Amino acid sequence: MTAILFWLFSALMLGFACAVVFNRNPVASALSLVVSFIGLAALFVLLNAYFLAVIQVLVYAGAVMVLFLFIIMLLDLRAEERRKFNTVVVAGGMIVAAMFVAELYAVIEQLPFRVRTFPPLRLDTALNPGTLNDVQNVGRLLFSGYNLPFQVVGVLLLVATIGVVVLSKKELK
Asked: 3-class secondary structure for 83-109?
């Protein structure tokens, strides 16, 4: 059952991720990204990472996507117009993508752990982790070992918010 749910949520997530790229309407792309985030949260639940799943839904699918939709609607972005199909650009992109896949395959073939399999999952320890607390461990690690990067991200978000307000401000004539 877990394998079926994994493939279902993976297909859902990848399908809506493709919809983000191929939609011409920015609002539809943003909503497709929300569904893709929810599919990723479901995959976290399958991995018993409940804290990450909740944060994925609350922070990314909730707050960040509401901010993106607010910016899209504030800037009044319209659907992109259809352009003429350029075969040279598409062929060049396909060649670059094929070269990337070939290089990725060559690198993976050189790795020593590619022949090892994952250890079997023991359900008694996966479902009953004992005294470990996800939130406590993440908080302790975040504020002890990664305090400076955490503060830098906060400043970057503040600067981005100020930038959005400045860009969306209408000029008075």
From this structure: CCCCHHHHHHHHHHHHHHHHHHHHHHH
